[in-house]
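Invent a record, attention on tokens:
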Amino acid sequence: MSKHPRPHSDRIKAKISSSLRCVWQERLKLKYSRERFFWSWAESIAKTAKKGGSNQQELEWDSYDRMKQEIVHQELQWVAEKAKAKAKRMAKARAERLVLSWAESIAKVAKKGGSGQQELDWDSFNKIKQEMVLQQLQWTTEKAKAKEMGKIRSRLAQKRKEREEKARARGEIKRKTHRKLKEDKEDFAVPQVSKLEQKLTKVHITESVNVQVTGWGNTLVSHFGGLEKLDLEIVKREKMRREVSLADQIQVARIKKSESMDREALAASSDYRSNKNTEE
């Protein structure tokens, strides 16, 4: 076998072309038969949909053609929108390239300077671009920081509101407790006064009886008088003890204790001095 194939003769070429033509004709026949079957099937479906079933009114439109028109219209719209978006992207890219080229040309001119001016050692365009990026980052950071500070302020305000509500609730509880204690004191004072009046009545009866009794009755009257004074002192002391708070009672007890200690110290010092004088 040679390395290079030999060219076919005209007769072989004609046979090859005729065989290929037959193959393509068969394929086209198969394609056309499929299309005719599909169209006939679609038309039968459209006719059936138009006529409807039993006891149904026949429609006045062809559902298949209408659906086909809608699909074609949607495809055309989609192609138009796609072309429009592509044109917009291309216009935007061209504008960006134009701006970049313009900025680069301005930067080059600014770097070189005019006639009789020295060329600069920096690229103004890159510097301006870096400054713009830095400003954008700073603005984004400040915006995020402001947002975070707003959240923190809202949380602090919520906590402050909760503390105020708790303080208001505690104050209300204290007021209710104080009012209840005051009412309890008044309720306690009323029976004490009634008891005192009963005792005084008894004492008065006893005095009227004791007027008619002999000398031993005078001793009994004086005894009842002492009991009356004792009851009054107990009532006053109990009333004062209830009116005075616990802290005031503790302070009074401390003062009394310090006074007693001072008196004991003075007494001890006076005894020591007297003993010393006697020894001398």
